[in-house]
Each structure stands twice: as structure tokens, then as C-alpha cells.
């Protein structure tokens, strides 16, 4: 089986984890802050807060921006369900902005039109979550300009996009956003097994993320509101969670971070090969935004014969090629249909979904396996 994505673990990764196992700390030791500092150095963000998944990071990112009952959060329908669920965890309402028909990323024009309507109805969103599908950056300059005009905050769901750049900035620098969230699940660009991180340039937001990650507890003397009871004393200020990352996971993440540039280079090299072999086939690759560089978490194509997508998917799977579809539109899941969403709500997203297919792409994909994917796909489309 050729998977659609796969982690790349070497001896350095194994050694890093084993070293933690025989150290004094399995969790809350030196590796978590070292991984956080590594991500700050890499992205240029001032603060990074490691957690046990990107889902947790999205949840506490919403809380840190004050999302609660009565608030609205908007995101893209072409994403993993976690991008939307985080708003519901906070008791807020979620709604979706239609996508650009070529990239599957949130369309700034659709966002502008929806904002104009919402303003006239008094239903503006508190937060917009932009998702960088495949690692391809959204048009963040346009979305950020709208945030200045309409007063919403921005979370970037960069689960696919550590290692991407846009407008001369690495994603995660938060140049265009309040918070950026990464995932380190094994299929993503780098892995800590399970894990996630939130970056921000705002000290207040970072302090809130740190507190929500660990039960809403604060420990530093300058944050205490009651008199100090002694060396054992801490205070709970909010209702937080246990979303902490362990040192075992952080050691793996930190080791992987040192190879991130190599992974991104390899993923781009393989993507260019796919691009060059597909020019005569009835398909269109989903390309990065001009002027940006993608970490290439996913290599996605749009099939011109979209009515044959299921047949092509089944044929390739039967041949041991684990193609995939990212994603079934979030609003069409039964859970969301029950909340009032329906087919036809987001026409571009629904049309995009019908055409897409994800092909195998990961740094260790061999030339012969990639050639097999290309040949089998060409046979299907002949
Ligand atoms: C994978 C993913 C998540 C969730 O990541 P976890 O670390 O598994 O919680 C969120 N958003 C998007 C777009 C993803 O692809």
C-alpha cells in the first residue's frame, strides 16, 4: 500500500525520545519549552504554547480570544471538522464562508459579501478561522484587511502549513492573525505523534493559552489575586483543561523540527514532478497562491470528469494506492445538518468537494512508487 501521507522517523528522532525516557521528566520538563522556543525561532512568533493536539489548540485559541455563548465564529467548510467544532466547544455559533473554486481556501470576496450582510443584521463574527488547505496559504492580506474594517479576530488553522510562507512571512509568524495553530499528527508535515501548538505575538493571549492548557491555573506571583499562602500555592482563575504536551512528544517534535526544511524541500520536489507529468491529463492540480510557498502537506487535484471520482478512487485503492478526499464539507455532516445547515448553502465548496482527489505525498515517497501513482492515474483517465 502506498499511503497518502506518512511520518518520517529516523534514528535521531528515536534517540531523542529514548533520552527523555531515561531523564528525570516524562512531562513538564525542559523539552516542551525547548520545542516552543524552536517554533518561535522558526516562525518568528514571539510566543508559542505547546498542547496535546491542534484540536486542543483551536479550542483554547477561541477561549483566549474571548469566544463564548452569543458569539459567532466563521470558518471554511473544506476542512477537518476540528476547525469548526472548536467554536461549539465554547458555546458559540459557527458559520461557514464559501471557498475560492480553484484553491478550496476561504474566499476573501465571499467573506466580504457575508460581512456586509452580517453587519446590516448585527450578526458580525467575533473570530474568523482561516484554514490553509494543503499547506497553501489563504489570501491573508485580504482577510486581514477585512478584519481591520469589520473588527473580527483571526485564527489561522495552519495544521497543514508549518513550513509555508506568504507575503515574505512564515505561517505561524502571526503577521496577519492573532493566533496560529499547528498540528503534529503523524500525517502532517512534522510530527510529535499527537500534538499541537499555538503561536501569537500578544503576551496577554499567550498567558491565557498557558492557563487554559493546564486547568486555568496560574502560578506566577504577579498574576495572583489572593495573598500568597506559601511555596505550594497556586490559583485557579478560569475553567481550563489538561491539554499539556508531554516531554516525550516534545522531544520528538523538536527533533522533527530540525528536519522541517528538508521535508518541505522534498515535498515540493515531488509535487513539481506530479505537476510536470499531469499537463496532458484531464485534471487540474490545486496550486499554491501566487507569491507564496507551500509546505505541501497534501497534493490535491481536481478531476475534470468529476462524475468518475468514486470509480477512480476505488480503482486506485484496489491497486494499493491510498488516495483520499480532503474533505467532505463540514456543514454536510449529520451533526451540522441537525444544526440547520443544508446542501446548497455553500455552492463552491460543494462543487470543489465533488472534484477533488488527494494523491500520495510524503518525503520518503520513492521515485518508483510515485511513478506507479502517475501511471495508474493516467490509465484510469485514459
Ligand atoms: C489535522 C487537522 C486538525 C486537527 O489536528 P489534531 O492535532 O489531530 O487535533 C485541525 N485542522 C485541520 C485543518 C487539520 O487537518
UniProtKB/TrEMBL annotation:
Recorded superkingdom: Bacteria
One Gene Ontology biological process: polysaccharide biosynthetic process
Key word Hydrolase present: no
Coiled-coil ranges per UniProt: none
Active site residues per record: 188
Any GO molecular function: pyridoxal phosphate binding
UniProt KW keywords: Aminotransferase, Pyridoxal phosphate, Transferase
EC identifiers of the protein: 2.6.1.92
Record InterPro entries: DegT/StrS_aminotransferase, PseC, PyrdxlP-dep_Trfase, PyrdxlP-dep_Trfase_major, PyrdxlP-dep_Trfase_small
Modified residues (N6-(pyridoxal phosphate)lysine): 188
Family assignment from sequence similarity: Belongs to the DegT/DnrJ/EryC1 family.
NCBIfam families in the cross-refs: PseC (TIGR03588)
Name of this chain's protein: UDP-4-amino-4, 6-dideoxy-N-acetyl-beta-L-altrosamine transaminase
Organism: Shewanella insulae
